[in-house]
Amino acid sequence: MTDHKQIRKEIIAKTIEYHQARFAQTEFIPGKTRVNYAGRVFDEKEIVNAVEASLDFWLTEGRFSEEFSEKIAEFLGVEHILLTNSGSSANLLAFSALTSEKLGDKRLKPGDEVISVAAGFPATVTPIIQYGLIPVFVDVQIPTYNIDVEMMRKAITPKTRCIFIAHTLGNPFNIDAVMQLANEHNLWVIEDNCDAFGSEYRGQKTGSYAHLSTISFYPAHHITTGEGGAICTNDPQLAQLVRAFRDWGRDCYCAGGENNTCGKRFSQLFGNLPFGFDHKYVYSEIGYNLKMTDIQAAIGAAQVDKLPLFCERRKENFKEWIRIFSKYPDFFILPEATEGADPAWFAFIVTLKESAPFKRDELTGHLNAKFIETRNLFAGNMTKQPGFMNKNYRIADHLNNTDYIMNNTFFLGTYPGLTSNMFNYVEEVLDSFVQNYTN
Question: Which residues are catalytic?
């Protein structure tokens, strides 16, 4: 009988061979090869890890989940990492935790107000609406594309209980101002770090400042597990609440395959259940099943080792875009980092000036026709989106910049898969387009 360990070694060797054959780098052909705004960047290590996890066939959270969580914790300097199945689920779980009755008077309740922005991605706002709270939309500033701090201060009312905003496209918001305001008014803060995993603010990693923060591992983000996300916190109570909401709402916090970690599995009283009811089947929250699989975590455990390099590449690529677009100061507003921030840019965001002789959609249409991907700044103005139009929200003062962004802003990729040949091609296409309006 053949030894399964020997077979495993042969499978891994063949996996490495397969990667070399299947994913060999292809030549970039200008005008034929797509210049993507994002994409997976990986080598044989991710595939080997995925195969290893498949051969283990543990499937739910296991050894790779533990490894991945520990690496994230070390990178961010955060105590508790809860893996989940997407960045959107991470946002939902972080917000859900703050609605728990276990928080007493500090819990978020229907009718409470939550400071957010409309120039962003819906996943930061939908949990607020789903729990019956009221998003208060504050305008953003150009060219940082982050929340207007003065307007945020004026938006606070006795109903305000939380601030839930993202670091826009990797550019940290003014964390000092946000946390100071939160401390003054005893507000919860959730840091949507999905587009900024690896960014820094005053020398400290984003995602390590707020009560809770979230990460996305969708393929467009800084590292990927395909689908996946994480919730990060230094608060053990919040970590336990997130785990409960993620794991069907159950009160038990045993890891998969473990029993009676607390030593009181059959000796407690909960709700109106009989004394000693099995703790593994006690549900203290209205929860979900939003866990990550160990195969996904195995990919993430390999990806996170590359994160510092990926972040440096994103910064370098951002500088390339600055070089290319800075030739046209009369037409474009170029992005700027928040004071004190060192962004690992998710993307390069550009806004057309009012004096530009062409429209945003004319330029982006031309770029996409030349196989150069662009994206608008997500939802544009969320209050104009059909799914949000009739929902209960409040606009703090005005959304003038948000409306301008909706009509005049787009972004290009900074992901590590971009090459010098791609930049040269995009520069030629842009130069040709602009010259049609200047000659």
Answer: 221
The two tokens of residue 25 are 């780098």
Tokens read off for 94: 């972080």
Give the domain range for residue 317: 24-249+284-439
- Return all residues near 434 (Cβ < 8 A) that are at least 6 apart: 328, 331
Query: What is the Cα–Cα distance from 210 to 277, expressed in whole angstroms?
Result: 36
Residue 271 lies in a domain: no
DSSP alpha helices (H): ranges in 268-381?
294-303, 307-325, 360-369
> Length of the chain in residues, anyone?
439
Give the pLDDT confidence of 257-301 residue by residue, as tens digits: 778 888 899 999 999 999 999 999 999 999 999 999 999 999 999
Q: 3-class SS at 229?
A: strand
Q: Indicate whether this model's pTM tops 0.70.
A: yes
Q: What share of the chain is helix, strand, coil (3-state, %, to 5)?
A: 40, 15, 45
Query: Which H helix or E strand runs over 178?
Result: helix 175-185
Residue 414 sits in a domain whose CATH number is 3.40.640.10
**Closest Cα to residue 175, out of 184, 185, 165, 160?**
165
Could you give the 3-state DSSP secondary structure of residue 428? helix
3-state class of 242 per DSSP? helix
**Cα(241)–Cα(128) distance, integer angstroms:** 17
What is the per-residue pLDDT across 194-236, written as a single tens digit (0 to 9) for each? Answer: 999 999 999 999 999 999 999 999 999 999 999 999 999 999 9
What residue ranges in 171-278 does DSSP mark as E strands? Answer: 188-192, 200-201, 204-205, 212-216, 229-233
Query: Does some domain include residue 15?
Result: no
18 domain residue, yes or no: no
Provide the pLDDT confidence category of residue 254 given band limits of 50, 70 and 90: confident
Cα separation, 365 vs 370, in Å, equals 9
CA distance 62 to 280: 19
Task: State the DSSP H helix or E strand holding residue 93, giving kind and residue range, or none if neither.
Answer: helix 87-97
Q: Domain tally for the chain?
A: 1
Q: Is residue 46 part of a domain?
A: yes
